Amino acid sequence: MIEFIKATTTEQCKTTALLANNIWREHYTKIIGKAQVDFMLEKFQSANAIKQQIAEGYMYYIITVEATAIGYISIKKEDKNLFLSKFYVIKPERGKGFGKTAMTFLETKAKALNCNSISLTVNKNNGNAINAYEKLGFNNVGTIVIDIGKGFVMDDYKMCKELT
C-alpha cells in the first residue's frame, strides 16, 4: 500500500536527504555532472536544507510502499498554483504506477489548498521525466534558466497542469 507521510521531524528530513542522495547520484550525474550534483545535494537536499525549506512553507512527503521509503515529493502553495518542487522515486520503483498515484495525491492536495494548477520545472535533458509529466497532463509552457551559484545553472522547462 502506498502512503504519503508528511515530513516534519529531523529523522524524516534525514530519510528524505538519504533518498535524494541515492536518486540524484544515480539519475542526475549523467545529465548535469558529478560536481553540480554534489553542489545541489548540499544546497537543496541536505537534511538541514530540507528543514529550512519546510520553515519557508514547503511541504515534504515521503512516499512509502509497505512502510519502505521509495521516494519523496516537495510542494509549495504559490497563490492559486501548487508548485511541485521535487518529485523523485528510486530507480527500482519507477514505472510501477506510483507517479500516477502521486499525481492523484497532488491534485487532491492542490484542490484542498484552493489551487487551480500545478506547475514544476524539469531539466531540459531529462527526457524520461518530461515524457512522464506529459502523460500526466502537464504542458511545456516555456524555458527557465536559474543561476544557483558556484557557476552552475538550472536549465529547465517549466511545465503546468490546469486542474478542473
UniProtKB/TrEMBL annotation:
PANTHER family: N-ACETYLTRANSFERASE DOMAIN-CONTAINING PROTEIN, SPT10P. The lineage of its organism: Bacteria, Pseudomonadati, Bacteroidota, Flavobacteriia, Flavobacteriales. It comes from the Bacteria. This is GCN5-related N-acetyltransferase. Residues 15-164 form the N-acetyltransferase domain. Keywords: Transferase. Pfam families: Acetyltransf_1 (PF00583). One of its GO terms (molecular function) is acyltransferase activity, transferring groups other than amino-acyl groups. SUPFAM superfamilies: Acyl-CoA N-acyltransferases (Nat). The keyword Transferase applies. InterPro entries: Acyl_CoA_acyltransferase, GNAT_dom, N-acetyltransferase_domain. The keyword Transferase applies.
